[in-house]
Write a structure and sequence with these properties.
By secondary structure, this protein is an alpha+beta fold. The protein has two domains: 362 residues, tRNA-splicing ligase RtcB; 37 residues, no CATH class. The strands form four sheets. A seven-stranded antiparallel beta sheet has the order 10-6-8-7-17-15-14. Strands 1-2-3-4-12-11 form a six-stranded mixed beta sheet, sandwiched between helices. Helix 1 links the parallel strand 2 and strand 3. The longest helix has 35 residues. The radius of gyration is 21 Å and the shape is globular.
Length: 406
C-alpha cells in the first residue's frame, strides 16, 4: 500500500510529519502543534496526521503519535477511550414511525445524557439495568487496585456513570444506510472517571518534569518515561478506562435497542453488523518491525480488514469503513469530520434558525444549547473521506434521521 495521498512536512530537529490532508483545511496553530510534538525525542519514525486534524489541548486532534520508551498523558487526553459503536438492525426505513419524535423521546428517556441528567442514579433513570451491574463487576477489581494507589479516583462518578452518554459532541443516532436499512449509532467514552484519570496523570507528568517543563514546547507535552512508576500506573489506568468506555457504549446500545422496541412494534434483530471502536486511546502495537506505543488522538485503528466508524456532523453523512492497513499511517484513519471552528466561535457565528435549517431533515433538538454542534462548524465530510481513500474503503454510508445530543 502506498501513501500516495500523504503530504510530507519535514521538521527541523524532529521527526517528519505525514499528512493525509489534501483538499481539507489545516489551521496554522494545529500545524505548529504537530511540529512541537514531532520534536519530542521519543517519537518513532514519523507522525501521521488524519484529514479531520484540528487544534487540541497539548496534542493535535486527528493525529497518530507513535512513541518508544515514553507516553504523553495529555496526548490521550481526558476522554480516554472515547469512540463509536454502531449496530445494523433488520428494520428498514418503512418500519419506522412517520413521526420520529416519539422514537427520539423514548431514547432520551432511556439513556442518561446531558448536563442535567448525567448519572444512572438520578431522576428518570433510577432503574439500573442488570447488565450495568454485571459490567461493573467485571471492572471493579481492577479499579480497586488503581484507587488503592490513587485514592482520589474513588471520589468519581465511576459506577454511576456506566451506561450514560455525557455532554458536548456525544450523541445517539438512528440512521439509514444506502439500502434504507436502519442502524443505531452512538458516540461516548469513559465519562467522569476517565476524565479524572486523565487529569490526574497529566498533573503527575507535569509535576515529574517540573525541572524540564521550560524545555518543552508545551507543558501539555509532559511525559512519563518507560520504567518509571507513573508510566506503569498510567498504562494500567488508561487500559482500564478504555475497557470502561467500550462497556459503556455497549450498555447504551442495549438500552437504545430496548427503547426502540417500545416504539417500533415490529419485532426486529439488532446486531446484524456491529462495530465498537475507540478514537482517543493508546495501545501497544507492532509497526515497521518494532513494538511501539501508538496514541490515537481523534483517530481510529484501520488495520487491514478492520471495521471502523467515521461520523459526519449532526446534519451530514457518516461512514462504516474497512481498514486498508496502510502502514505509513500506522494503520489509522480519521475519527470524524473535524471542527473548522471552536464551539464559542460557532455560537457567535450561527443562530438557532441556522441550526434548524441545517438539520431540517433530522429529528433532533434545535435550540441555543446545540448551536456549537451545527454542521457548518465541521469540515466537509466528503472532502475528509476523499483525502483518506488509501487508508479505508467505505462499506456503508449512513444518513441520520434521529439525533440525541448529550
Amino acid at each position: 500500500m502506498h501513501d500516495s495521498t500523504a503530504q510530507l512536512l519535514e521538521v527541523a530537529g524532529g521527526k517528519p510529519i505525514k499528512l493525509w490532508t489534501r483538499g481539507v483545511p489545516v489551521e496554522e496553530a494545529a500545524r505548529q502543534q504537530l511540529i512541537n510534538t514531532a520534536r519530542l525525542p521519543f517519537i518513532f519514525k514519523h507522525l501521521a496526521v488524519m484529514p479531520d486534524v484540528h487544534l487540541g489541548k497539548g496534542s493535535t486532534i486527528g493525529s497518530v503519535i507513535p512513541t518508544v520508551g515514553a507516553v504523553i498523558p495529555a496526548a490521550v487526553g481526558v476522554d480516554i477511550g472515547c469512540g463509536m459503536i454502531a449496530a445494523r438492525t433488520s428494520l428498514s426505513a418503512a418500519d419506522l414511525p412517520d413521526n420520529l419524535h416519539g422514537l427520539r423521546s423514548a431514547i432520551e428517556r432511556a439513556v442518561p445524557h446531558g448536563k442535567t441528567f448525567g448519572r444512572r442514579d438520578q431522576g428518570a433513570w433510577s432503574d439500573v439495568p442488570a447488565q450495568a451491574d454485571q459490567a461493573w463487576k467485571a471492572l471493579a477489581g481492577r479499579f480497586r487496585a488503581i484507587t488503592q494507589k490513587y485514592p482520589r479516583l474513588e471520589k468519581t462518578n465511576n459506577r454511576s456513570h456506566l451506561g450514560t452518554l455525557g455532554t458536548g459532541n456525544h450523541f445517539i443516532e438512528v440512521c439509514l444506510d444506502e439500502a434504507d436499512r436502519v442502524w443505531f449509532m452512538l458516540h461516548s467514552g469513559s465519562r467522569g472517571v476517565g476524565n479524572a484519570i486523565g487529569s490526574l496523570f497529566i498533573e503527575l507528568a507535569q509535576a515529574d518534569m517540573r525541572r524540564h517543563l521550560a524545555n518543552l514546547p508545551d507543558r501539555d507535552l509532559a511525559y512519563f518515561e518507560e520504567g518509571s512508576q507513573h508510566f506503569a500506573d498510567y498504562v494500567e489506568a488508561v487500559e482500564w478506562a478504555q475497557d470502561y468506555a467500550r462497556q459503556n457504549r455497549a450498555l447504551m446500545m442495549q438500552t437504545v435497542i430496548e427503547a426502540a422496541r417500545t416504539v417500533i412494534r415490529k419485532p426486529f434483530e439488532a446486531q446484524l453488523e456491529a462495530v465498537n471502536c475507540h478514537h482517543n486511546y493508546v495501545q501497544r502495537e507492532r509497526h515497521f518491525g518494532r513494538e511501539v506505543l501508538v496514541t490515537r488522538k481523534g483517530a481510529v485503528s484501520a488495520q487491514k480488514g478492520q471495521l471502523g466508524i467515521i461520523p459526519g456532523s449532526m446534519g451530514a453523512r457518516s461512514f462504516i469503513v474497512r481498514g486498508l492497513g496502510n502502514e505509513e499511517a500506522f494503520c489509522s484513519c480519521s475519527h470524524g469530520a473535524g471542527r473548522v471552528m471552536s464551539r464559542s466561535q460557532a455560537k457567535k457565528q450561527f443562530s438557532v434558525q441556522d441550526q434548524a435549517r441545517a438539520t431540517a431533515h433530522v429529528e433532533c433538538r434545535k435550540d441555543a444549547e446545540v448551536v456549537d454542534e451545527i454542521p457548518m462548524a465541521y469540515k466537509d465530510i466528503d472532502a475528509v473521506m476523499a483525502a483518506q481513500r488509501d487508508l479505508v474503503e467505505v462499506v456503508h454510508t449512513l444518513r441520520q434521521v434521529v439525533c440525541v445530543k448529550g
